[in-house]
């Protein structure tokens, strides 16, 4: 269809319908390859929804066309009418396919519903149609299915209980590891604090040792100086450049001082 000769709204609706019809064609091709009845049912539901949307758009297409019919030429109105009939025909084809697949799917479900299996032992199976069973057989089959369901529920409960126990054990182990890590961190903090204090103590001891060495060196220099003065005084007692050391002056000096005071 030549979209250049119609309005923008009609062209947009026509494009949407074309997309849905293409999706329906691909969907039914995909449906032919599906073997599982449940998947077939879901696919058929999706295609049915698309067909409803397509039918709504066709009606909207017709409304828009009728609203503009008086403005269009005869050839354009004929083209739009042919387009509408073509879309309806294609949609009806998909509707027929949907009915055929729905009928086939309904027959499969009916067969599955009417069958019941009763096993008398390993490798033994008797198949009966539900319509041919008497009341007792139906009750026995129902009881067996309920027992199997109860057993499955019990197995599921046990699995859940085991899972909860494993989770609790994992949580306890994780908590213990977390506490152990916390203790290790505390111990590392204590070690770091002790090392810091030890470093400060070593620095203080180093400063004290340096001070003591300075004092000892000063005392050594003083002692060496005193010894040197004593030695020089002994070797050269008349040297006036060296003062007398207190307590080491000769007694003569005291006598001279006494005589000087007496004669005054």
TrEMBL record:
SUPFAM superfamilies: SNARE fusion complex. Keywords: Coiled coil, Membrane, Protein transport, Transmembrane, Transmembrane helix, Transport. The keyword Transmembrane applies. It holds the Pfam family Sec20. GO terms for molecular function: SNAP receptor activity; SNARE binding. It is found in: Membrane. InterPro entries: NPSN/SNAP25-like_N_SNARE (IPR044766), Sec20_C (IPR056173), T_SNARE_dom (IPR000727). The chain crosses the membrane at residues 215-235. It comes from the Eukaryota. PROSITE patterns: T_SNARE. Belongs to the novel plant SNARE family. This is Plant SNARE 11. It comes from Platanthera zijinensis.
């Amino acid at each position: 269809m030549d979209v250049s000769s119609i309005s923008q709204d009609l062209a947009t609706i026509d494009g949407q319908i074309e997309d849905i019809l293409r999706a329906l064609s691909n969907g039914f091709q995909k449906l032919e390859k599906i073997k599982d009845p449940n998947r077939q049912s879901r696919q058929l539901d999706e295609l049915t929804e698309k067909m409803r949307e397509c039918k709504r758009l066709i009606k909207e297409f017709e409304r828009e066309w009728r609203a503009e019919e008086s403005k269009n030429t005869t050839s354009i109105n004929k083209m739009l009418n042919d387009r509408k009939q073509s879309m309806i025909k294609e949609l009806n084809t998909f509707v027929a396919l949907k009915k055929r697949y729905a009928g086939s799917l309904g027959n499969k479900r009916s067969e599955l519903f009417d069958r019941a299996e009763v096993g008398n032992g390993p490798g033994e199976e008797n198949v009966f149609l539900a319509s041919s069973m008497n009341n007792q057989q139906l009750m026995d089959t129902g009881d067996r299915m309920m027992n199997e369901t109860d057993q499955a529920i019990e197995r599921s409960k046990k699995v859940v209980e085991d899972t909860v126990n494993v989770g609790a054990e994992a949580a306890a182990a994780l908590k213990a590891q977390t506490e152990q890590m916390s203790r290790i961190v505390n111990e590392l903090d204590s070690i770091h604090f002790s090392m810091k204090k030890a470093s400060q103590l070593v620095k203080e001891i180093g400063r004290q040792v340096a001070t003591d060495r300075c004092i000892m060196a000063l005392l050594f220099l003083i002692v060496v100086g005193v010894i040197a003065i004593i030695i020089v005084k002994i070797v050269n007692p008349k040297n006036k450049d060296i003062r007398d050391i207190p307590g080491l002056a000769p007694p003569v000096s005291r006598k001279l001082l006494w005589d000087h005071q007496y004669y005054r």
